[in-house]
Amino acid sequence: MQHGRIVSAGAAPAVERIAADMSDLEVVDFSDCVVMPGFVDAHSHPLFAGNREPDFVARQHGQMPPLGMLYTVERTRKALEAPQSREEFWRLVRARLQTMARHGTTTLEIKTGYALHKQGEIALLDLIEAHRDEPHLPRLVATFLGAHALPPEYASEEKFIDYLVAHLLPVAKAHGAVYADAFCEPGFFSSGQTKRYLKAARAHGLRLRVHCDEIAFGGAAEMAVKLGVDAVDHANCIRPQDVAAIAQAKIVTVACPATIAYLDLPQRVPARALLEGGAVVALASDYNPGTSPCFNLQTVAYFGRKLLGLSAAEALYGVTCAGARSLRVDAGVLRAGPAADFVALEIESPEEFGWQFGGNLARAVFRDGVAIS
Q1: Using one digit for the tens of pLDDT, what is the confidence trace for 159-205?
Q2: Which of 179, 31, 7 is CA-nearest to residue 110?
Q3: Is this prediction's pTM over 0.90?
Q4: Alpha-helix runs per DSSP H in 3-82
Q5: Cβ neighbourhood burial of 346 (10 Å; 0-12, 13-18, 19+)
Q6: Average pLDDT, whole number, for the chain?
Q7: Ramachandran category for residue 278: left, alpha or beta (phi over 0 → left; psi -120 to 50 → alpha)
Q8: What is the C-alpha R_g of the chain?
Q9: Of 83, 44, 58, nearest in space to 300 by CA
């Protein structure tokens, strides 16, 4: 690698010939590891304040979670009120991102959605923009998730969509947003409301992805395919005809198996049917305080194999190339040209990927050719 980019990758003789012509070459020996592309996490929510552990305890006892998402909204809004508290908030978020990086994540899709008013959502986008290429953290891709839940100021989802369309979508791109996303789910935003929101987002220059039929079927996938989004995320409750349509439209399905495990969801994204139908399936953490406090894509790969029946190769593709494809970024690969993002895992064979779990097998993680752990 040179100037933070991969110069050559492949068989040793070819790489060694190129390396012979390079001055000041530093050799790092990972011969007892498997070197993989840096992981690409295509769905995460780390921009939050507040502790939702009581919700976890309640679920363990078969009770309704006492806090819920609006508690996170309340705590996040408070954390964003003043510049000083905002700095403390970023220190909290930065620690989470560092943990993700230490486990191999070098590119991270990062969503807003826990402020749900203009000043807070813009503050979150500005934080992402200010730190999107910060050293020793994953490279950040910003998603504006305005339609995440109904905030307490609004009595109906329709009125809140009106607000987002009029006041936030027109300025989101100027504050660094690349994508717009919405939680299209019964009890949250309908497919019609989500369609209106996403069409407005596209008109303002944003690319589109959508939380799709996660806990119950709501027609999200059919809407998303017709709209031509880049990715449908979760997709646990989609129908066979949705599987075929997603594959035909070449839309990436971003599966979040850690969420399935955390919530004990009875329905699981039909990953095998999607793959056999020619679709691309990515694996993501869905890191968030309420339904998937999992920051480790190595563990997500395990859940992908355990719950979704993926092979080691499919799981590895899911946390590298497929995630990158869903974000339209040149990452998740080891070849000449892209940024030198890679992770050295202490395993003997790629076939072990997603087998051992619960710890960190990353001996070293490099982003742009620089060791970040």
Answers
A1: 999 999 999 999 999 999 999 999 999 999 999 999 999 999 999 99
A2: 179
A3: yes
A4: 12-20, 53-60, 69-79
A5: middle
A6: 94
A7: left
A8: 20
A9: 44
> Nearest 5°: phi and psi at 190?
-75, 165
- Distance from C-alpha of 116 to C-alpha of 74, rounded to nearest angstrom: 10
Nearest to 212 by CA among 190, 234, 231: 234
Q: What are phi and psi of 61, to 5 degrees?
A: -105, 15
What sign does the dihedral 351-354-359-365 (CA atoms) show? positive
Q: Which residues have CB under 8 Å from 310's CB, separation 6+?
A: 271, 281, 283, 304, 318, 354
- Eight-state DSSP code of residue 21: T
How far apart CA 199 and CA 229 sit, in angstroms, is 10
Amino acid at residue number 367: R
**Spatial separation of the C-alpha atoms in residues 358 and 133, rounded to whole Å:** 28
Q: Which residue has the tokens 């976890």?
A: 56
**What pLDDT score was predicted for residue 29?**
80
Q: Any bridge partners for residue 367, and if so which?
A: 370
